[in-house]
Amino acid sequence: MNDLNSDKIDRLEGQLISDGVSINEMSAAFSMYLLSCLDGGRVKIDGKYADAIRESLGFSANIGIVNASNEKKKSYRLKMAEIEISLRRVDPVTSAVARCAGDCLYGELDWQQNNDGDDTPLFYYLYHLERVIPSVADDFFAFFCGYFGIMNIG
Question: Is residue 154 part of a domain?
Answer without folding.
Answer: no
